[in-house]
Design goal:
Blueprint: H1 10-29, E1 45-48, E2 51-54, E3 59-65, E4 68-73, H2 79-87, E5 96-98, E6 101-105, H3 111-148, H4 153-186
Antiparallel strand pairs: 1-2, 3-4, 4-6, 5-6
Helix pairs in contact: 1-3, 1-4, 3-4
Length: about 190
């Protein structure tokens, strides 16, 4: 092994790749699969008090039954804005307002909508793959600099193989997560 000046930080590369995977899982959680989930409202933001506010900071989100999400809005003045944000979010949910409680009945997904959601999941996965490849490129750039600074050919090859193995592992995890999510979406 060479000294620390010519080694690359694999832990940093792995941490960044793990971050891309975590981000993908978070995006997958927001995709509607026909079952009610509190996380499906996470991408919805409301123009509240002069700024974009996540919906879960304006009320309590509950899932009382498999096809129903309820949102108990804390500020009565915000009910209309929250309802409007949900309608315009593209989730395909029609909110029903009852005082400060907003009920969100989750309709059964039709085949066309399932295919659409499957494509959206594939786009999320491709974005994650691009992020992983960008981290790989950064690692390879570090290797080029280290080689110019005097890293041996053998060490350079060994580190390049390590970076590629890390990349392959994370791409495989993304593919597996996508396959699982698509099966979940297509399940009737």
């Amino acid at each position: 092994m060479s000294d620390d000046a010519t080694e690359i930080d694999l832990d940093d590369l792995e941490r960044r790749m793990d971050g891309a995977l975590t981000s993908l899982r978070h995006e997958f959680a927001s995709l509607r699969t026909g079952r009610a989930s509190a996380s499906m409202l996470e991408p919805v933001h409301v123009d509240a008090y002069g700024q974009q506010t996540p919906i879960n900071q304006l009320g309590t989100v509950n899932v009382p039954e498999p096809r129903m999400v309820t949102l108990n809005v804390w500020d009565k003045a915000m009910v209309g804005k929250v309802e409007k944000a949900i309608r315009e979010s593209g989730l395909g949910i029609n909110p029903v307002v009852d005082g400060t409680i907003i009920r969100l009945p989750i309709p059964e997904l039709n085949e066309e909508r399932r295919r659409e959601l499957s494509k959206v999941a594939a786009q999320y996965a491709e974005s994650a793959r691009v992020a992983i490849r960008n981290v790989r490129r950064d690692g390879m750039d570090q290797l080029k600099k280290a080689k110019a600074a005097g890293m041996s050919e053998d060490d350079n090859k060994m580190w390049a193989d390590e970076v590629q193995a890390l990349t392959d592992k994370h791409i495989g995890l993304i593919d597996k997560a996508l396959e699982t999510k698509q099966q979940e979406i297509m399940q009737v």
